[in-house]
Design a protein that fits this description.
The structure holds 2 protein chains of 2 kinds. Helix content of chain A is about 70%, strand content about 0%. Chain A is mostly helical. Chain A has a domain of about 210 residues. In chain A, helix 5 runs antiparallel to helix 6. Chain A is globular. Chain B has one domain. Chain B is built from 21 helices and 2 strands. The radius of gyration of chain B is 22 Å and the shape is globular. Chain B starts with 7 loop residues before the first helix and ends with a helix. The chains are: A mainly alpha, B mainly alpha. At the A-B interface, helix 17, helix 18 and helix 20 of A face helix 4, helix 5, helix 6 and helix 7 of B. Chain B: One of its GO terms (cellular component) is membrane.
Chain lengths: ~525, ~500
């Protein structure tokens, strides 16, 4: 598994260049290494981690000692931070970088522009927090460390390549690169029936969704004759097939359905709770933030940003999907007694809020990105505290937390209030206001009302959980808390999330700048 | 009058919000003993009162219609949200009321026996104060909304931390119900924004809805009105109120009735009526109808109550009905009456809840049947204060409660042009019936509790009114007398602003 992924990761860039070459004037395309530097840095780190894992001394036959586990973790962390620095350099440099281009008709497969930077930044910051959480998760030694970080880094490569992908093949490859390592990560918690079940479930769902997406994409390719997103609309206009409309409609629907699996939108949501609960908490956080962001990046690229495609067909469908997703996610979350399951369904509901502005039309993409960025910060924080406190655990374990661990309880309360969208969690409030504004401005009043009602339903479970933190526990529950987890890195992860969310609360303009997608085309 | 230095003015208005916010934040880090904690709470709320008083003193009363002490800074350009604060004749009395009532609550807390989780309680109260003051100061639609929402979580905790046996359910009902109201309000505010492209309340009120087609104004007025009506609360959206009041601790009830409800009615005076005049005209008869139903319903519900706090809660529904009726007339008299009624209700009902809390404290129950009679004999001071507050609340001339009700009915006698006069005459008649019923239930209550032979329950050893209680209540008693005997003191402040936004019609 790991070796095939390694080859896959290392060679997909090169192989892609080779497949595109028949169109090119010269046999070898020039590669702009500045453009692909961040994923490249991650790929190198991934290889380094795997090599270190093999050559560093083992304490027993199967596992490393704590210091080696720590060293591997810090290597992965350094790689992600380096990739982040490269991304910042790209942002500071400004302008648009593109590579893997074909001259006739001019198009590039890998473009670093505003949306790439926004999603890349989100992914890498979330990646840092997930790695910090992993350090806590891996501290007890029953999970193979080298494989874990390698797979995690591969998923991050996919997640930052995806928003840069501007052709359909690249998009699918990047999406798979996000998905494949996650099954393995889920299954790495060996000797746990729940984890294996979750991995199989995730695998099946993901394979089905990939198949559906691929079918849609092949139809799009067949109807338009091009793989580059920027040429699809033009290609369809002069399509050789006379009755292309039906085919393209079906293709767009299939692509939406495929991505809807990835972001756990209703009716493709049923896997979410079991998988989140079965996987370890860092993987659940990865699924709910990084993998979801990748899914939305793909959806926004295909539907909204590149060339508004058949919007009269997909806009109402997305609006209905959004309404269903938020409602069903919230209703299911209300009944949960387990922290991670609750967060799983709540993140389904939040997917609905992210989808909602796309129900206005392609112009809603900006608000969707804004909500996604806010959501990523708050949700990641909630997962990190859940990891810190009880490795997930039942909601009853959180009663009276403020008396035992005031800092963790206050952080969790803040994230929950943010997710509910109430002050003092201003980040969540502004996120919701941005979406409501898009809906009211776009004249989709019914969806705004549905979302308003959902905000109230959501508040119910967030506030009951938050209130439980401040309710004195009837009997000591210390015994039920998780055994020795290395807490310091997780606590740093929580602190990073708190700082980011507080900054987003006080100066949300940062995020609104990220949502300015007008420069895209 | 000496001119105020340019810099001093924004510092005043910003410190009104910063002092309690900082006070609440510092409380998280401080580990204080109970006594020190009580002093800290007193000091912070007292310090908040200072800039409020300074603002009231430097306020230019000859230009009461104009926004003064204005601050206008960009905050979130991506949402068009500006940090725009200011006071005029409409908001200044409410700001002063809020700061005063919060301070008095801390005075009351300083002598209260309950000390468990005092720190959490105090930070919740201070945060609550930020939200309440911010709502009255905000001059940006979204900023108004943000502050409107700030109060929800602290109020939830005030009820849930110190409330009665059913506190959890009551707190949850309060927060869910009022959040539903405020998201509906948000939709209405965003509708105004999407049609006019500005969130500036001053500019919107100045243009008198010129950029808004009538149909949009009606939709926006209905959504904003619904959102505000939940908070006010208007019959039939009031059902969260009695539960919240019954379960809330004394200070929670005082601030809930004294200030939180006013945020709803203030929204009508600040946003709904000035910004959406055509919408207001179209919806006013409905608003009036719901208001008078509320008046009568509240009074009838009071007659049926056994619990003192629940009765006062229902009486709020009736009193806020008068306030809404005042707004519905769309006349200067009616709107002034509404604003007057707001303040009077804040003072009187605040006092009533303080007294009900004191009664509960001494007898261990607020159930009127269990209390029996004879309070005037056993606890003469408490009994007389309760009598005074009840008589003020039922609208005895010479006390503050009278003017709001009388002027609201007077406004209904001659509603604004374009509104059906016969209809409003009916409202006036029904409202008049309501005043009679109001007098009836308060007198029934007094006869059951303060008069008559002493009941089986004996008050605890606490005895009659204590010093800290007296110091919390006397300012309210004095203000009720002042505004009752000299209503012009308040009307002269509100009237210019009201005239300005109503006259262009």
């Amino acid at each position: 598994m790991t070796t095939t992924s390694a080859t896959h990761a290392a060679s997909h860039v090169a192989s892609h260049a080779a497949t595109a070459s028949p169109h090119a004037a010269t046999a070898v395309q020039a590669i702009d290494y500045a453009a692909i530097a961040p994923p490249l840095a991650l790929a190198l780190t991934a290889c380094a981690v795997l090599l270190l894992d093999a050559f560093l001394p083992h304490s027993s036959r199967s596992s490393h000692g704590p210091s080696v586990r720590g060293a591997l973790g810090f290597t992965a962390l350094a790689g992600v931070i380096a990739a982040g620095a490269l991304l910042v350099a790209q942002a500071v440099h400004g302008g648009t970088l593109s590579t893997f281009c074909v001259p006739e008709p001019a198009a590039c497969s890998y473009v670093v522009d505003h949306i790439t930077l926004v999603f890349g930044g989100l992914t890498l910051v979330a990646g840092v927090v997930v790695i910090l959480m992993s350090m806590g998760q891996l501290s007890d030694g029953d999970i193979p460390v080298g494989e874990w970080y390698f797979l995690l880094l591969c998923a991050l490569i996919g997640a930052i390549t995806l928003p840069a992908s501007r052709d359909l093949v690249m998009l699918v490859v990047a999406l798979e690169l996000v998905s494949l390592p996650v099954f393995a990560l889920t299954a790495l918690r060996r000797y746990d029936g729940r984890a294996s079940e979750a991995a199989v479930k995730l695998f099946l769902v993901s394979v089905v969704s990939t198949a559906i997406t691929l079918f849609g994409i092949s139809l799009l390719y067949g109807a338009s004759g091009t793989l580059h997103l920027s040429h699809i609309a033009g290609g369809l206009a002069k399509s050789p097939i006379p009755e292309a409309h039906g085919v393209v409609t079906a293709a767009v629907m299939l692509v939406i359905a495929g991505f809807a699996f990835k972001v756990a939108a209703v009716p493709f949501h049923s896997w979410a709770a079991d998988v989140y609960q079965g996987a370890s908490v860092p993987v659940a956080a990865l699924l709910s933030v990084i993998s979801k962001a990748a899914g939305f990046a793909g959806l926004i690229l295909v539907l909204a940003v590149t060339r508004p495609l058949y919007s009269e067909v997909w806009v109402p469908v997305v609006a209905v999907l959004a309404a269903l997703t938020m409602t069903i996610g919230n209703l299911l979350a209300m009944r949960q007694r387990h922290a991670v399951r609750l967060l799983a369904w709540s993140s389904v509901a939040q997917s609905g809020y992210i989808l909602a502005p796309l129900g206005v039309g392609p112009e809603g993409a900006g608000a969707a990105v804004v909500y996604l960025v806010f959501y990523a910060a708050m949700n990641l924080g909630a997962f990190a505290v859940a990891m810190l406190v009880a490795r997930g655990g039942s909601l009853a374990d959180y009663r009276g937390l403020v008396f035992r661990r005031p800092a963790a309880a206050l952080a969790l309360a803040f994230f929950l209030v943010c997710l509910a969208g109430l002050p003092p969690g201003l980040a969540g409030l502004f996120a919701k206001v941005a979406v409501f504004r898009e809906l009211v401005d776009g004249g989709v009043g019914w969806l705004a009302v549905v979302m308003a009602v959902n905000t109230v339903i959501g508040l119910y479970y967030y506030v009951t959980w938050a209130a439980a933190l401040f309710t004195p526990a009837p009997a000591p529950v210390e015994a039920r808390e998780a055994p020795a987890v290395r807490l310091a890195p997780v606590a740093v992860g929580v602190a990073v999330s708190v700082v980011i969310t507080v900054v987003f609360s006080v100066a949300p303009q940062v995020v609104f700048d990220a949502g300015l997608l007008s420069a895209l085309g | 009058m000496t001119p105020v230095p340019a810099l001093a003015v924004p510092v005043l208005i910003v410190s009104v919000l910063i002092v309690p916010a900082l006070g609440a934040a510092l409380l998280l880090g401080l580990r204080l003993q109970v006594r020190a904690l009580k002093m800290y709470g007193l000091a912070v709320s007292g310090l908040t009162l200072v800039p409020v008083v300074a603002m009231a003193v430097t306020f230019d009363y000859r230009r009461a219609a104009q926004i003064q002490h204005e601050v206008d800074l960009p905050w979130i350009p991506g949402l068009d949200l500006r940090f725009h604060l200011g006071v005029d004749g409409i908001s200044l009395p409410l700001v002063a009321l809020t700061a005063l009532l919060t301070f008095l609550c801390f005075v009351y807390l300083s002598g209260d026996r309950r000390t468990e989780r005092l720190r959490a309680m105090m930070s919740a109260l201070l945060l609550l104060e930020v939200g309440m003051l911010g709502t009255f100061l905000a001059l940006d639609l979204l900023l108004f909304f943000v502050f409107f929402e700030v109060v929800l979580i602290p109020m939830y905790f005030v009820i849930a931390i110190w409330g009665g046996p059913g506190r959890r359910a009551a707190a949850l009902k309060f927060i869910l119900y009022t959040l539903l109201g405020s998201v509906v309000l948000l939709l209405g505010l965003l509708l105004i924004w999407s049609q006019t492209g500005t969130l500036d309340i001053v500019a919107l009120a100045h243009s008198q809805g010129a950029a808004l087609p009538r149909a949009v104004q009606i939709v926006a007025f209905v959504t904003i009105g619904l959102g505000l009506a939940v908070k006010t609360p208007m019959w039939p959206l009031h059902t969260w109120l009695p539960d919240a009041h019954t379960e809330a601790p004394t200070v929670g009830s005082v601030l809930l009735a004294g200030v939180l409800l006013k945020m709803g009615t203030y929204g009508f005076a600040r946003i709904a009526i000035p910004v959406l005049p055509d919408g207001a005209h179209a919806v006013a008869p409905w608003l009036g109808a719901f208001a008078v139903v509320g008046i009568v319903y509240g009074a009838l519900a009071c007659l049926a109550q056994r619990d003192l706090k629940r009765m006062i809660a229902y009486s709020s529904v009736g009193h806020m009905g008068f306030v809404l009726l005042g707004f519905a007339t769309l006349t200067p008299v009616g709107v002034n009456a509404a604003l007057f009624g707001n303040i009077a209700h804040g003072l009187i009902t605040g006092l009533l809840f303080f007294l009900a809390g004191a009664v509960k404290d001494r007898y261990g129950t607020a159930d009127m049947a269990e209390l029996g009679g004879g309070m005037l004999g056993r606890l003469p001071y408490l009994g007389s204060l309760l009598t005074f507050a009840c008589i003020a609340s039922l609208g005895l001339p010479g006390l503050a409660g009278f003017w709001g009700e009388m002027l609201a009915l007077f406004g209904a006698f001659e509603p604004a042009e374009g509104l059906s006069r016969p209809l409003f005459l009916v409202f006036m008649a029904v409202g008049g019936l309501g005043t009679v019923l109001t007098a009836a239930y308060f007198l029934v209550m007094l006869s059951r509790v303060t008069h008559g032979p002493p009941g089986p329950l004996t008050p605890s050893a606490v005895g009659d009114v204590r010093t800290f209680e007296l110091s919390a209540w006397v300012p309210l008693v004095l203000l009720i007398l002042v505004f009752g005997l000299w209503p012009k003191a308040l009307l002269a402040i509100t009237d210019p602003a009201v005239q300005t936004f109503l006259e262009a019609r």
